[in-house]
Amino acid sequence: MTTAAKSGTDTELIAHLLRRTGFGATWEELQAAADLGYEGTIDLLFNPGDPESMPSDIIRRYHPDQSITQIAPSSGSVWMYRMSTTKTPFEEKIALFWHRIFATGQTKLIQGKVMLTQIEMFRQFGLGSFRDLLVQLSQNPAMILWLDNQDNHKDNINENYGREILELFAMGVGNYSEEDIKECSRAFTGWTIANMPYMSIRMRNNTLRPYGYVAWQYKFDPEDHDEGEKTFLGETGNFNGDDIIDIICKNPATARFIARHLYHHFIADELPVPQWPFEGPKDPEAIELMVDAYFANNYSIGAMLRAVFESDMFKSEATQYARIKSPVELVVGTLRLAGGFDWPTADIFKATAACGFMGQALLAPVSVEGWMGGDDWISTGSMVQRINFASATVGDPTKKGIKSIIDQISDRHPRGLVTPKALVDECLELLGSLRVEDDTKEGIVTYAMEQGDIDPRTDDGAGKIVSVLQLIVSTREYQLV
Question: How many whole angstroms from its chain centre is CA 42?
Fold first, then answer.
């Protein structure tokens, strides 16, 4: 164990890891991880097994409200349900990471099936080679339609995708020229969608049925591909899209750009992305650690993250609670603590809507730049939404997760009475080994003292436990991860 790791218990360190790689952990999940130890938990994260999610055919048959994917709340709720119930939350966290960067919106695509297919692609390729992920992204129908590559022709190029793969997805501003954008776009001509020839001009913008709502498939059209010589980032050849991606991925600027995004999402809040060309990273050593792992492991995103999770930097107290939870992290983490979702319910749709009210509507990023994160998540209105949602969710003692907390407190005190300080300590522990500042804890204890000693076996005692849980999830510290 490193010196940094000794700053807290193994359980607290594992809780930190599970907050960053998932959406927090229930006490039962945390104890199972503690049995594996910190390194064993990392191994499990990268070899997760079956997510045990409800099969999509069951959802389609018995929960048609989640199958009407032309309606954004339905398709967003499909993902919300999976995030809230999966046994492999790291897969969903990495999918959320890429959704934030490769910001594609159902607002333009209209139907959600193609969006959910993109999210599944992020699950499958999100921790592998960045090169493979960029190929999949470039051939993804949602991205092709989102950035108009179906209108990128050899005799009339469309620069939308060529520009964004360089500016927003892989390299960042300042690492390429306008001429590179044109040459990149030429290389991606002919990368289109298989059923496009059957669409009218208006249907090509995905506005009419029936063809506007089919499950699109990628197609390479050699007749529409520019076979001419291209010069891109200093290299010349008869490049196609795969060649362009190879050149992008071996560029040091790409490794640093992706490393900075990973830092922003998994380690600590960074400056907003538009400031990156002018301001250096918060922790250059952490960036170099990931860059080295990127090049040593065939551009592997998983290797970059594993290097971080095993580092003293990640284990240090300074890194813990150093990020503001995104709305999705807050909502999903609270739902998972409360539990009780054996099948899709109205609560899932309410949770999906709540994310939108807080500023992060699933499958509907605010722009092609995605969400900035950090301080942007917090405003007077969003804080009211965040606190109200968390408090209402844990305020139901009939939910499985809340009932389990009450039962565990009761089991620990067979003689009945629990003192206010013990109650606060145990609630913090059972909510996933949470840590709050001394003044915050003092305020919660003061509130609990007004209730006096409680008997958790009674309805009155259970109600007082719930009120303490509600107060904890309303704290500043609960907004951090």
Answer: 18
Q: Are 101 and 371 in contact (CB under 8 A)?
A: no
The pLDDT tens digits of the residues spanning 351-377 come to 999 999 999 999 999 988 999 999 999
What is this structure's pTM?
Answer: 0.92
What digits encode the pLDDT tens for the residues 225-245?
A: 999 999 999 999 999 999 999
Residue type at 70 in one-letter notation: Q
Q: What sign for the dihedral angle of Cα 300, 305, 310, 311?
A: positive
Of the candidates 426, 287, 399, the one whose C-alpha atom is nearest the C-alpha of residue 345 is: 399
Packing angle of the helix pair 420-430, 459-472 (nearest 10 deg): 60
